[in-house]
Design goal:
By secondary structure, this protein is an alpha/beta fold. It folds into 2 domains: 1-59, no CATH class; 62-319, HUPs (Rossmann fold, 3-Layer(aba) Sandwich). It is built from 14 helices and 9 strands. The chain has helices at 3-12, 17-25, 42-59, 77-89, 106-120, 129-133, 137-143, 148-163, 176-189, 192-195, 222-231, 248-262, 266-286, 307-319; strands at 34-35, 39-40, 69-73, 94-99, 124-128, 169-171, 213-214, 292-293, 300-301. The protein has a 5-stranded parallel β-sheet, sandwiched between helices. Strands 1-2 form a two-stranded antiparallel ribbon. The protein is globular.
Length: 328
């Protein structure tokens, strides 16, 4: 048996999706706790969920014996779920969190994350906008008019990649809902080049300074992840970033939720059909995709100046930030 097969077999036993389905057909008498794909009791749901994640890791070869995994954590349900599972199955994982500086939100989720990592004996590394860039997101938004998610997403990805240096993979908590939203956002905006970077393993081309991202929750609905986190009693708060409602993603999310309600399976169909197109997209854009390095900080960039430095430079005068500070 392969390394991955051994690890998962030891962790969850010889449970596969067919086993769960056969057990359900025997008319389990326990009350259902969730009904997304089908009604499931607590025990069968947890087995089904973990089997689905394990199957994704194995099918797409997300983790190898040589990998050193860091998990991008927010303290929310998705990242905590995958942090728990990867630590349970493989051990030797590290949690990496970004403190953007969002009062009343990030401080609370980081508190939950610190408590979870402390109970689970998982190393935690926290990087902040304030230390790295000289300002928090809250301070930036008080001085300039900009869509929060635009600047936050750029700076967050920058710190995750920089902070993951020395690891071979970044595991993220992106679920099926997230991926369906990302696919449609890129299609609506005509960004097929960006769409080519999606999938269970992100990216089109390799670079020594770019740490690949993997998405073990790729085929799990957000409702399933929330139910799993709740049933496993992770001790986290199920809250949302206060800026999320003004994002383009929120509009696409609401649109897809409406379609899903009218036509169950819509999100799954979007992702499944996209995966059929993905190899051609990657081949098409691999030839034109290239990664250079920022002239200011040396991090991966599509042009001479990375987006993080571009944002910081434009904000420097308004925020009176004297220099770009890297603190990893």
């Amino acid at each position: 048996m392969t390394f991955l097969g051994n690890q998962i077999a030891v962790a969850i036993g010889p449970v596969v999706l067919d086993d769960v389905e056969r057990s359900i057909k025997k008319r389990c008498s326990e009350p259902a706790v969730i009904s997304v794909r089908q009604p499931l009791c607590k025990s069968h749901f947890i087995r089904d969920f973990e089997s689905r994640v394990a199957a994704t890791i194995k099918k797409y070869k997300l983790i190898s014996k040589k990998d050193r995994i860091v998990v991008a954590c927010s303290g929310g349900k998705d990242s905590t779920a995958i942090l728990y599972l990867l630590n349970k199955w493989f051990g030797n994982v590290t949690a990496l969190a970004i403190d953007e500086g969002i009062p009343g939100y990030r401080n609370l989720t980081l508190e939950d994350l610190r408590n979870f990592c402390g109970r689970s004996d998982i190393p935690l590394k926290v990087l902040s906008y304030k230390k790295a860039f000289g300002f928090s997101l809250h301070e930036a938004l008080r001085k300039v008019t900009v869509l929060p998610c635009n600047i936050c997403g750029t700076l967050r990805r920058y710190l995750l990649n920089s902070g993951a240096r020395g690891f071979t993979k970044i595991a993220t908590g992106h679920n099926l809902d997230d991926e369906a939203q990302s696919i449609m956002m890129n299609f609506f905006k005509g960004n097929l080049g960006l769409a080519a970077r999606l999938g269970p393993i992100s990216g089109v081309v390799e670079d020594e300074k770019f740490v690949p991202r993997i998405k073990p929750l790729y085929f799990c609905y957000e409702k399933e992840v929330a139910a799993y986190a709740f049933l496993k009693k992770f001790g986290i708060r199920f809250n949302e970033c206060p800026h999320a409602s003004v994002s383009f993603r929120a509009s696409v999310r609401d649109f897809l939720n409406g379609l899903e309600q009218e036509q169950p399976g819509t999100k799954q169909n979007i992702v499944s059909n996209f995966l059929r197109l993905l190899p051609k997209l990657k081949k098409r854009y691999a030839a034109s995709a290239s990664i250079s390095h920022c002239s200011t900080c040396g991090e991966p960039a599509s042009n001479g100046l990375c987006k993080a430095c571009s944002y910081v430079n434009s904000l420097r005068e308004s925020l009176q930030v004297k220099s770009f500070r890297k603190s990893f």
